[in-house]
Design a protein that fits this description.
single chain, 375 residues, alpha+beta, two-stranded antiparallel ribbon, 39% helix, globular
Length: 375
Amino acid sequence: MNPSVNNMPLKTLRYLVASFFLTIFVGNASAGIPLTPSCIQYRVLGCCDMHCTSYVINHYLPVLLIEVVNKPGDSVFASPVISGVGGASGGVTGNTRIAKHHEQGFEVRVWEISSKMRKAALGPVACAMCEDQYAKFNGYMDREANPPDPLLKSGSKQCGGDKTLNMSLDKLTEISANTGAPKLVYSTELDPINWRTGCRDMQFTAAKGPQIAVTCNAIALKSAASDVMSSLGFSYSANTSGPEEMCVGTWGPNYPRQYRSYNTDITGAAHEAYRAIHIASRVLKKNKYAISGGKLQAFYPSAGQCFAPGANPAEVDQKVRVSHNGKYGFIWWVPVTCCKSLSQMASCKTSTSASAGSLDMGGFPEMDSSEFTGK
């Protein structure tokens, strides 16, 4: 078998893929939720078979939309997406926002982006990408690889509300199905006691508190050392992972998963967005996508570059614009890998579908314009 002949289709495919991504995302992003092309990181890794008739594809896929807002009922959209979500605060009312020096507090909603919305946003290049079933598989494996601590299970039982919360989310899913809106997989407004007190995780944090503090402080010190070494021209990589997912990199503890974050405005919003995704996956099992290896992209107040959970706050501040109304919106991207045949890739090249660069959110209203008008 001639290696040069076998490599030629792969080289050609990589060239064509590069040209795809240079020509998409040119549509009017204001028509929906803007996606950032660089977040995709599309790669052709090699051949799936010895004759190289199909190829190993690896890239990121946008799967979740997260609203991070100041108080129950608030939204990055001009009006509530589903009637009742904003007001369902379980008797707990008032502004969640703390906004003290290095301390933040927000309400969070996590929505699942449907395959239909994603394909419409990606336009003609969608056929060159892996289906979301591969992201779902990673999500299930992710949970199996990281079983919850027994103390977390007992905490959920003691604080209660998980069964009722799941029933409320199921009911809202039925409503959203009729409006064309994405599926709500978690809302802190439907989980007010746990979100405001961290009750669900209190037993775990009480037992693991010293270990959490040591682990998270070590990560912060390594990150600081990395910054110093980088400024001197040396390469130094900080380990941002912790045992039992105790820390979200340099952002601090993951537990208790509640509304208080000792970070600046932008990083605090991202920190709490990640905690909400974590609850949707680990506690409620509503998030069927991976939380390991994912990354966040801001879409509100404007589209930004992707960053990993726990990234250095200085990096986050560069990639997310400060919101003057205190509200943020994020897209959660997860890594996927699959095989695509040469015929499938060829069909992408001949596609005449219109290019697009934003998610059409179906039943969602337009985004809140107060950030831009000052109202």
